[in-house]
Structures are given as structure tokens and as C-alpha cells.
User: What shape does this take?
Amino acid sequence: MSHNTILDAHFLAPDIKQFVIHAPVIAKKCRPGQFTIIRTSETGERIPLTIVDSDSDTGTITLIVQGIGKSTKAFNQLDKGDEIRDLVGPLGNPSEIEHFGHVVVIGGGVGTAVSFPQAKALKTAGNRVTVIIGARTKEMVILEEELRQIADDVLVCTDDGSYGAKGFVTHLLEELIKTGPEIDYALAVGPLPMMRAVSEMTRPQGIKTVVSLNSIMVDGTGMCGGCRVAVGESTKFACVDGPEFDGHAVDFQILMNRNQAYLHEEQCALEVAAEKIDRDNRRERRKIPRQPIPARDPVERIEDFNEVNIGFTEALAQLESQRCIECKRPACVEGCPVEVKIPEFVKLIKDHRYIEASQLIKEDNVLAAVCSRVCPQSDQCEGACILTKRGESVAIGALARFVTDYERIHGDLTPDPVPHERKTGKRVAVVGSGPAGLSCAGDLIRMGHEVTVFEAFHEYGGVLIYGIPEFRLPKEIVREEVDALAALGVEFRPNTIIGVAYSVDELMEKEGYDAVFIGVGAGLPYFMNIPGENLIGVYSANEFLTRVNLMKAYQFPKYDTPVINCENKHVAVIGGGNTALDSVRVALRLGAKRGSIIYRRTGQEMPARLEEVEHAKEEGVDFNFLNNPVAYIGDENGWLKSMRLIKMELGEPDASGRRRPMPIEGSEYEVPVDLVIVAIGNGSNPIIQRTTEDLNFNRWGNILVDENTMATSKPGVFAGGDIVTGGATVILAMGAGRVAARAINAYLNMKPTEN
Assistant: This one.
């Protein structure tokens, strides 16, 4: 085997790679603290790298490389079987290893790897060894388990608090100095500012402190003097006098200044190299297939109401995020009704900065964890993704779910309230706590206005609570999003029907609100007006799902609200949207022996999310396309027993752009059925219309607005969501809420403040 051959190579963390290299001479001679010089190509730099481990029997050494510059990034492109062009060592002096007593080894970043052989040797010499590991995030922590096997104590901290203590290594060191046991010797390896801070902290205590310096080098053998370091009154060379020096004597400022000497040139070279790597990576990224989001087994999940999708693992999220080619003009953002900064949050995922990614999404979407589960991404952000021109889009929704769930587990979901100095003194009433109302309230409270949300039900969330089943959207997530808005300062009032308890006029004239946003949704169910709709066993989807979701009838008799027993019955659902699929899948979980979708068009025209259609098929739902009910037939006691269907065919496109379903004359037939759920859409509740005379509505009961501002015909009153558009999606309603919030803010800024 050739010397310098890489026998193993793998990443320990983002941009940090471990190499096991066949180098028998170096392996035989090296001691803890010594380093090698490597060069990967004719044009590459000579890079000093500390020997992390060695095995003289196998003739191998271990190096750990962090890709931060052109040469180290090039090194990290090498893999098992490759040969390193130049490798020389061991260089430098071995570490001072003796029995000191209590030794603290401090490793910052990749310095943890550099300190590993010293920690191992110090323990062998009989010392009590405490290791402090510092890293930017949990994903950047390396060699923790290996160090735990040799050290007496291992303390971990991360800058963002995602693992171990939150803060820097000096925080843990300070606590150790205060609480004991007494420290006899400290070794610090890592970034220069960290080693300087450690040295300054131990100086007043008189703790002997050694730092390991890999400064700028060209040859590494004492010929060039490029690695000179000011130590006390002397100038030392790190390559022959070090690399370890008395931390209390090192002039860190001179050293840090010298390390900046070639920063500009290195940055230029890195940018050129990065452009080439990026071009190559773009081609490779296009080859990565879209990662399917893991889901529970259909046989298991059909028995309960627990969430179906499991969500991405970190490995899947990393792989999927690599598929994003970071377009200069991202169409995905244009496809998102609330304009989430999609490329930026995906980039944060690539960098393993998951909590930051979640918080970035929430800047534009106050229901981020909700939308990642229920948005029809294939019609919006993912549908606009440039990758769809040649294949499948990036799984934006699944990535958003991963980071928002990560923050739910590892972060703090409670935001700080809006500071008093930012408050405007203006008051806004938001009518309805559904997606439009919550989105509008979230933006307005951050703009400094006082916001009160009025909700007719006893629980907040609107359709998110009463309309979407637990297995698709756990209600705990909705409550967490509402709690976050409350922490910002939004006031919530349940059991208050505007149009009954207060009229819109009373909110403004008597209750003192400067503006009103109406986001009450479209909650009045449509029926088909065919014979038999009043039979027992014919439900609207609204009633069926409200009983099950809001009132928890699926846990009857623990909860008092019942639902007609579905056990061993044939349940048919009329419609092809998400509500229809939710209804039939609920029925199966309630014990139905058969669940059928009756839809007057084909599967291609179904408006439901593709993922929900696939899940329904996996769970055994029957799809009866090109069929429509014309009557329901009951028994002598008024209970539904069958339905009469007529077959359909598709004609010319209608106003929706879908081909119009046309009945086929003479094709009627009867089908036995025990329960029918009608899910063909909803209209507007007339309560506000009846009590607000100067508010204009269309003939379907939808409020008329200026689409650019969501302003209504009544000054100071704005509206958005399904009450304006008719039944649509959660994210479209939220987009309308955000548009209205901007317009309300502009309106309030022009309105004088009353003393």
C-alpha cells in the first residue's frame, strides 16, 4: 500500500471531516501535541494539522480537518482510496505530559479534536481530567463520546444552547473555578480569541495554562519564520519551539493581527474555488431524488387519531435541503401567499441552524408549524419551484415542518412581548381566530398596535380546530401558535359572537377600537337540495368534523358530545376536497367497514392535497369518480338506508378551469349506505351582514373589498379570508390577513391619536 493513502474518511459535523491515513513512519514516531504538514495538489498550500490519534501497529494516523479556506475545503473533497500528495511529520515538540493533579482540557470547535491526544495522555499519566467542549451548535460537537471514555468529566456548551449549556467555554471554566475542585493545569486549544480569553481567566488564579498555536506556516520546519510568535520578551517559532506555549506569556494581539495578513487573498481564492465547487454541486444536487416524508403504517394509524406523518429525520432534512439550488430569483417565494423567505431558511438548514430557520419562517408566518402540515404546497411554493421543470420540487413543506418541530422540542416558543416604547396606542378588533385573523393579529401586534381577537367558540383557531382532524393537525400545535401570539401581547376573548354580543359599529363607537378586521371564514355548510337530505344519517361535513374535532366525539363517552355510530357501516362522503377526505378518514377511524368518496369529476380534478389523497388510498378509501347523488332513500323510521347516484361525464371547462361534469341520462343506480357526509363547500354566515348595514356584500354573502388593501365599503373596517373569497386554503387566508394588516397600519398611522 502506498504511503499517504486515505483508508477512511467521513464527516463528523458540517465541514469537519476525519481522515485515517496510512503513514507508518509518522505513526511510529509521533507523540501527543505534534503536527503534520500536508499539501493536496501542485497548487495547494502547505497546511499544518495536529495529529489527533495514531496506531503504530497499523501504521495509521488520524487527522481532523475543518473546511474553512480554499485548501482545507479541497482537502475535504478527498475520500477513501485517495492519496495525499505531500505529507510530512511529525513536527513540533510533544506536549508536556506529567502528573499535575486536576487538569482541565478546553477544546473550542475543531480544537476539541486537537486536544484529544493530550487529554488521553494526561489521563494515562494519572491526572484527573475534566474536558470542556465548545461548539457553535449541537451538530458541531465532535468526539464527545470518545472523550467521555478517557476523561473523568466532560462538560459541553453550545453558542445557541441547542446542546449542553448555552454560552462559551469560558462560562463553564469560570463556574469550574468557582465551584472546584481546584485546577492545577489548563490546556486550551481552539480559536485564538478563545485561548486568549481562557488565559486571561486563569491568570488571576495562578493556574498554569498552555495553549496550542497553529499559526501561519509555509514549511513547518523552522526555515521561513512565518510562524513566529511573541512569547514574553522573546520571539518563538511555533513549528520548532511549539506548538504549545505558556498562555499567560503569548502576545495574542500580535498573533491575531499576523493571521489576518493574507485574509483578502485567501478570500478571493476561496470565492473562485467556491464558484467552481458550487457549479459542480448544482449538477450533483439535481441528481438527488426528492425525499418522501415518513409516515406511520396504514394498518396501525387507521386505529387511532395520532398524527399520520412522522416528519423528516435530521439526515433526511439535510439530504433534501441539498436539493435546493439557491436560485437568484426564487420563484418559490412568489408562490407563497405570505412570502416566506424560503431559500434563506433552507440555507440555514444546510448550515444546521435549525432554530434560526424556524424563527426566520415565523417572521412572515405566525402559523408556521400549522402551515407546514396543511398547506397545499404543490399548488403554491413547491409548484413554483424551478426544479419542477425537469423533475420534482424541493420538499419545502416537509423542511419547514422539520425546523418548526425542532424548535418546539429544543427551543423556547415564547417570544418576548412587544416593548412599550413601540406601542402606538391604537386599538384593533380582529373578528375570528382562524388563519386570516391570527395572521392579521400577529402582524399588527408587532407593528405596535393593541389587538383583541374575538372568537365565537370556546377554543381558538377557527377551522384549524374544528375542521381539520387530529391525525393531520394535532391541536396542541395550534394552541402553541396561539399562545405565542398571546405572549406577544394579543388579547383573546372566547365565546363572543360579533353581530350578537357586539355589532361592528359598537366595536368602533362604544368599545373604542380604531379599526376592525373581519376574518370569520365561511362556515355555513352547503347542501345539494336533493330529496332525503333531512334523513337521520345525512351529515354536513361541518357538523360531523366539529363534533369529532372540536368536541372530541371520537373519545365519547369520556367527552359528552356523541356522533352517529360508524362501527361496521358504509360511510359515503360527497365531495373531492380536503374536507371530504378528512371526513372519510375520520369515519374509518371510528370503525366504518367501508369509506367511499363520491365525486362528480375525475381524480385529476380533485382539489384535495395530493398527499392526503395518497394517504386515503393507503387507508383503504374507495374512490367513486364521475358519480353524483340525486336522492337519499330512508326506511320507515326516517334513517338513511341507500342513495341514488347518477353517472357523469366531463364537458367543457367551467369558471374554475375544470371540465364541467354533465349527467348521463338513464345512468341512475342505487347503492346501500348507512351514513352520508356532505362536503361540497361552505357559504358565509349571515350574522354580520344582518347587523352591519353599510357593509357591502355580493350575492353569495361574501364581503366586497379592495383586493390591494382588503378595505371594505365601511371606513376603518377590513376583511379577508374565506368571508371574502369563499372557501379556500389556510395559507391564502393568511396572505389576506397580512395584506390587511399592512393596510390597517397605514390607515391607523394617518388617524390622529386621541388624548
